[in-house]
Every structure is written in C-alpha cells, then in structure tokens.
Amino acid sequence: MYLVITEKPSVARSIAAVLGANENMRTHLKGDECVVSWCIGHLIGLAEAHVYNERYLNWRKGDLPILPDQYRFSVKEGTKAQYNALVALMNDPAYEYIVCATDAGREGELIFRLVYEASGCHKTVKRLWISSMERKAILEGFQNLKDGHLFDPLYEAALCRMKADWLVGINATRLYSVLYGTKLTVGRVMTPTLALIVEREKAIRAFQEEAIYKVQINCGFKAQTERLRDRLQAEQIAAKCNQESAFVQYVDKKKCTEQPPRLYDLTLLQREANKLFGYTAQQTLDYAQSLYEKQLLSYPRTDCQYLTDDMEENLPVFVRKLAQKFPYTAGIDLPVHFENVIRDSRVTDHHAIIPTLHFLESDWTELPAGERDIMQLVANRLLCAVGDPHEYEETELTLKCRDDTFKTRGRRVTWMGWKIPRETYYGSMGHRLRRDVKDEDNLLPECEVGKVFHPVLASVQEGKTVPPKRYTDDTLLAAMEAAGKGNMPVDAERHGLGTPATRADILEKLIRTEYVERNGEKGNKHLVPTEKGMATIAVLPEELTSPVMTAEWEKKLKKVERGEEKAKNFMNDIHQFMETMVKNAKPVEEMPSIFVRQETVVGNCPHCDKPVQEKSRGYFCSNPKCSFSIWHDNKFLTGHGITLNREQMQKLLDHHQVWVQGFMSPKTGKVYDATLVLKVLEDGKPHFSVEFKGTPKQ
Question: In sequence order, what E strands does 70-153 have?
C-alpha cells in the first residue's frame, strides 16, 4: 500500500478515479493498493511574530529586526482536522511510501513538504510530476515516479522565498507603521508593484496638454507632415500648398512577414483575457485552474511558451481535430508547423498552456461563460501558433509640395497566414473583441518617383498630446514581467516582479489594502493608486520600492534551486538586509498630509519624563529613544477585558495606578473591579498588576 497526497480535494478525486481508490473515507479515498488524501492549499504557514516572544504583540522599533534563529510554523485555523488526518496517514505503518502529487511547481512542493516535515514522517517520498490531469498523463506519471529528493533544491528555494517574504512583511510593516503612526503594509513584491502604479499616476498628474498640428494633403489618398507645434506655421503651409501640385519624391515598397505568436504562458493569457474580455488576472487564473481540474486544460501556472519534443508526433492530428471543435474554423484546412512551438530546451517544469486530448471529447459549449472564453482563447492561440507567417506588402511614399514634405504608408495583405483562425474567431465574437486596426488594408496607388498629383487639397489637422495611460491588469502584468529585467540572469526562473502564479494575488492584495482601486467600466478598468498608496511610496526607501532588490533575490533563489548556492547563505543575506533597513530608517523631512495628525499629550513618561502622546494604536512616549508604550491591544489589558480611556491613562501616568471597573478574570471569566498598577521596567517597558487592597467600596 502507498499513500498519495494532492493539493486539493478535486485533484484527489481525479487521481483516485484513475488509481481505483473509490471508497470515500471523508478525509481520504481508499483503494486496494493505495489511499489518496489531500491538503487544502497551504495547511501550514510561518507562525506570527508573537509566537517567538509575547512582547512582539506590541509593535516597537526597538524590537526590530525580528530575525528568528529557528523558524516556527503553525497550522492554519479551519484546516486542523485535515492536517491531523494527514499526519495520521503519513505515520500509519500500513503505507510503504508516500507519493507527493501536489501541483508540479514551487508552491506545490512547499505545500507538501511543510506537512511532511511537521508530521515527523521519515518514509520514502516519490514525486508525481505531470502537466495535465488527463487519465493518460496520470497513468504515465505514476509509471515514471521520480525520487522525491531530486526536488530538495526546489523546496529549499521555495522555503527561502517564503521566509524572505515573511521577514520583509513583518519587519518593514512594523518599522514604517511605528515610524509614521499608522499601519503601512509593506511587501517584497507588493510594494515595488505599487510603486509602478504610483509613478505612472505621478506622470499623469504632472502632464500638461499641448496642441499639435499636422498639414494634410489629399491626392486621392492622404499624406501628412511631421508634427508641428505652431498653428500659424501649419496654416501657412496649408495655404501655400492648397490647389498646388505634389510629386512623388521617394517610394519604398517591401515584402514583410509577421511570424505566428508564441503559445500562452499564464501571464500572457491573463493579459489577453483582460484586454479582450475585461477579466482580472485573478479571474483568469481561477477559470484556468478550474479547466485544469476538469482535465480540459494543461497546467496553467507556467512561464513557458513552448512544447516538448515528445509532443511533435501527435500535434498535427491534434490541431486539425481541435479546429473542427469550433464552427468558425471547422472546414478550414489549417497548416501545422510544429517547429514553431516545439522547443524542448526551453521547457523547464511545464510546457505552455494548451487544450488537452480530453477536451476533444468534451462539450465545451456547456462550460460557464468565463471558462468558455478562456478555453476558446487558448485553443485559438494554438491554431494560430502553428500557422503560416502573415505576409503583406508595405509601401512608404514621400511627396513634395512646394518646399514641404508629406509622408504616408500603406499596407496590402498578400497572405493572411496565422491570422486566418484569429480573424474568424474575432468575427464570431462580434463586438466583444477588438480588432487590430493596423491589420486593415490601407491601399495606395501604384506610384513611381516623379509622378505628379494636381491639384491637391491641403488642410490643418489639429490634435493634442495625451498623458500616459493608467495601468490595466493587462499592462501592469506586462510591466511587472519586465521590471528589473536588466538585473535578471538570462536563464532566471522568472523575470521582473513576482511569478506568473503570484502576480494575480499581488494585484488583489493591493486592492484589499486600499492602496489601489479599479476604476472604469467593465472591460476597461484602470488601476489607480489611492492617496494612501501614493503617500506610502513617498515615505518608503528606494530599496523597498525598486524592483532591483527582488531581481537580485531571484538570481540567488535560482542558484539555490539549482543547488549552486546554499539556502543558509541566501538567508544570511536577507537578515543583513533587514538589519541595515532598520538601522538606516528615519522619517522623511516632508510628511505626507495623510500621515499628519494632531497628537494629544496625556501626561509625562514615567521612564524618561518626556510627553506621552495618544495615537491611533495606543499611547507612546514622544522620545524616539524611549521604549515606553501602552498599545490599545496590550495583551495584559485585553486579556482582562479592559481598555484604558484618555482620562484613565492620565491618572495612571500621574499616580502609577488607576481604579478600573469591569476587570474579567482570564481563568474564571468572573467580572470584578480593582486597581490597575503600573510599574516601569529598566528598559522602559510597562508591567501591569492588579491590587484589591484599598479599592473604593461598592
């Protein structure tokens, strides 16, 4: 008997059906030879800071940086029952070995390993590594299980990235929240992504509209001057050329080809779906994941745009059958140039996103609308990618009228090539999809140098300069992918900010933290930073807002993944970065107005005698070198069910004690009244106790 562990219950059911494990045991599926169970995403995560030390419940600069020697983990609330079930199964002597069948990628490896390590299990682990949930792929995968230890470096890199994100989140968030008296959420990838949006918004706000002019002549076709800034100059040219003769000064005619597009990786699929349908990056990922679990789509969380050599033989037949699935390509004899998409050397973990063989047997029209859109988009991309080059003839004309130059460009398509399936698809969708204007023919007459057109009509065309466009999900994903590219190695696992699998979540987190808003109509929503988001980037140092840090870390993580660098060395570098960040942190000279608030002085500090100020999260000494603070969520106070108001705090600071009604015993739940006593320790931190002697009579 062996034990199979998947990432999700739905995947477990698909695998169990292939392996004959059909007996439902609530936490697992049982067969004659194996048992299939599942995680529920990440069952285990890094523990909160206060697990290491209770004093971390309060946020103080003096406690930073928080750099654990040994990282602790905790089981997520709501999933403990399944975690306990997995631990019991892993340690059950009935199972000879364990098959890790979580998603074949970094996150999938991490999800399994954290549970395996926490369980104390020492059984042999074999790895299922597949790119499709089809029956054939699953069977072949189990016939070719890999040694689990081969993926140790992948796990090490994934764990390092997890710890790095935790360290930045914990330390930078606390540091700058304390520094500016309001909560500022900082993330290793989230913050530089926010910076991209903020910089674009600043450019838009700084933009000043300018009028631009062109003089246009009509010779049966239209030609224009270059941009002119002076209206008077444009009017003078138009007046000079109107009703005059123009002759052809230069003709450049050339044959051009546009190669077929590459297949989709996740980021490109998300961009296209946003541009064409208005789907957010997260929606597209959700639809693609659902299609993958339905065995209709290959593994979606990939950054590869090619297929493997072993897929070459069956590709022509598959493509032609795929074309017959859709009314707009059925009956069209499409070529199949497999060499366009086969690059075995460019495929790492997973190949590009394509339909599965199972899709050919399915009724895709019964899918929900979003899944149907994504399915058609992926299928059409494959039909385009294996097609002929798109061919056209481009003509550039330069005309002379009096002493002024006019230019025009025309295009005549000679062979549609790979755009045949795309255009038929676009046509079937009508107004839902936007066509490329440049694909439309702009025909020019046959012209030779010296040909004269008489008379020509001249007119002034007025326009305006336009500001940069705000980001959409489409354009931001492109910017994230390209960010810091110059700092990345050629063979880096990922370019830019985040990974294909995480970028959607980063965008949504920016929305949840109220740093960014989506504005506009469906299908054309723009990402706009809030004033809070603008202010946050204004006060954070460049090393946290620039993609350079992320790029450098990705280089090192790739080396860890390949076994070229030890995880310990990577973590040492991160720890050093945290120490430097805390050491060098200081408020900006000009505080953004959103962070400026009137602080109320409630008394003098019992440790250094400087004023104590009331802020949104509690009471803090105004002396930055002093550690005295009483947070509203102080563990002792909240544990006894009390919150100190301003009047009570004033008495506590003046007399080191205050009468409080409504204490609640944390052990018995009994409510009582007593005196709260304050003692200040040598390091300036408060210590509380309760006294009943001498309390007022009731």
Answer: 73-75, 97-101, 125-127, 146-147
Residue 264 falls in the annotated catalytic set: no
Over residues 40-87, the pLDDT tens digits come to 888 999 999 999 998 888 888 999 999 999 999 999 878 899 999 999
Task: Give the H or E element holding residue 247.
Answer: strand 246-258
Kindly tell me the sign of the dihedral angle through the C-alpha atoms of 593, 178, 161, 512: negative
Taking the C-alpha atoms of residue 217 and residue 224, their distance in angstroms, rounded to an integer, is: 6
Cβ atoms of residues 274 and 320 within 8 Å = no
Element (H, E) at 140: helix 135-143
Specify whether the CB–CB gap between 291 and 371 falls below 8 A.
yes
Question: Could you tell me what percent of the chain has a pLDDT over 90?
Answer: 68
For the chain, the structural domain boundaries read: 2-43+79-144, 211-259+391-464, 266-388, 600-691
The single residue of 299, 425, 426, 619 carrying the catalytic annotation is: 299
Decide: 319 and 384 in contact? Cβ < 8 Å.
no
2-43+79-144: CATH class: alpha beta
Considering only the top CATH level, what class is 211-259+391-464?
Answer: mainly beta
CA distances to 181, 240, 635, 682 from 56, in Å: 17, 78, 10, 18
Give the CA count within 13 Å in the CB-facing half-sphere of 189: 28
Beta bridge partners of 672: 663
3-state secondary structure of 464: strand
CATH architecture for residues 266-388:
Orthogonal Bundle (1.10)
